[in-house]
Every structure is written in structure tokens, then in C-alpha cells.
Design goal:
With 154 residues, the chain is mainly alpha-helical. The protein is built from 7 helices and 3 strands, in the order H-H-H-E-H-H-E-E-H-H.
């Protein structure tokens, strides 16, 4: 049986509404899931946001993406994508190059080192997802995905 959020938060009063309880439950769940991801990533020396950027760039292929496109694809928006990319570049995980026609357009690509980091993390992240969601089964996962999509689309 699922844990009661009020007990988990040591809250004695009822929630104002089901919508408030749903929101707080979603926030608490996201925090728990992100904490587990951060623990999995810690040995590699990257954050969840940096991991997200590397996955985005791997998916983009050899053409890479500009800063704005990376920012639009992030799971959680960050205020300064440039600094995020600066740190990844300093770590040797991404490389940036200016376009010949428009010097303002800078393309970012994942490096072999960045691909290596993702490759080393893949089994650990897959195992974390299995621990987090495996008990739900495919049908319930599809329902969860659909409900979350409806919340985002509202």
C-alpha cells in the first residue's frame, strides 16, 4: 500500500484540496527520484542537469545543437545554459564551435569523453529506473505517463 503523504510529511491537518495533495505528492516524488539519480551520478562528478545535457546532445547526433535548442529541451529549465555548457566544456564532455556564416551561432556537440561518461552510467541509471518504477508494471506506467502528460497539457 502507498505511503500516506500526510504521515510522510508529519502533517497533522488535512490538505486544502485533492489538487493540493496531488501537487505536493508529485513534488515530493520528484524530489525522491531526483535524489536517487544524483546519488547514482555523484561518482561520475556530474549533476542531473549536466547528465540531461549530455543525453540531449547524444540524441542530437553529430550535428549538435545551439545553446537555445539545448535550453528548450532541458527537463528543468536553468537560468544560464551558457555557464552550464562552460562547465561541461571545461570537463571535456562537450565541445563548442562557431558557425562560419553567423559567428553568434555556436554549435555544441558531445565529445567521446562525454559519450564515455554516459556509457559508464547507463547500467546504473537503468537499474535505478527499474528500482523506482519496476513494481508498477507496464500498464500502470502507461497510465501514469498519460496522466502526467494531461497535467502538463492542461
Amino acid at each position: 500500500m502507498a505511503r500516506d503523504l500526510r504521515e510522510e510529511l508529519k502533517q497533522t491537518r488535512p490538505f486544502k484540496s485533492l489538487a493540493q495533495e496531488a501537487y505536493l505528492s508529485l513534488q515530493r516524488t520528484a524530489a525522491v527520484l531526483e535524489h536517487e539519480l544524483e546519488l547514482s551520478l555523484k561518482p561520475s562528478g556530474i549533476t542531473a542537469t549536466q547528465y540531461n545535457v549530455l543525453r540531449i546532445l547524444r540524441g542530437a547526433g553529430p550535428g549538435g545543437l545551439c545553446r537555445g535548442e539545448i535550453g528548450e529541451r532541458l527537463l528543468r529549465p536553468v537560468p544560464d545554459v551558457t555557464r552550464l555548457l562552460d562547465r561541461l566544456e571545461a570537463m571535456g564532455l562537450v565541445a563548442r564551435a562557431r558557425s562560419g556564416g553567423d559567428r553568434r551561432y555556436v554549435t555544441t556537440r558531445i565529445t567521446e569523453a562525454g559519450l564515455g561518461v554516459l556509457g559508464k552510467l547507463e547500467s546504473e541509471i537503468d537499474a535505478a529506473h527499474a528500482r523506482q518504477f519496476g513494481h508498477l508494471g507496464d500498464g500502470r506506467l502507461k497510465t501514469l505517463i498519460g496522466l502526467l502528460g494531461q497535467v502538463r497539457d492542461r
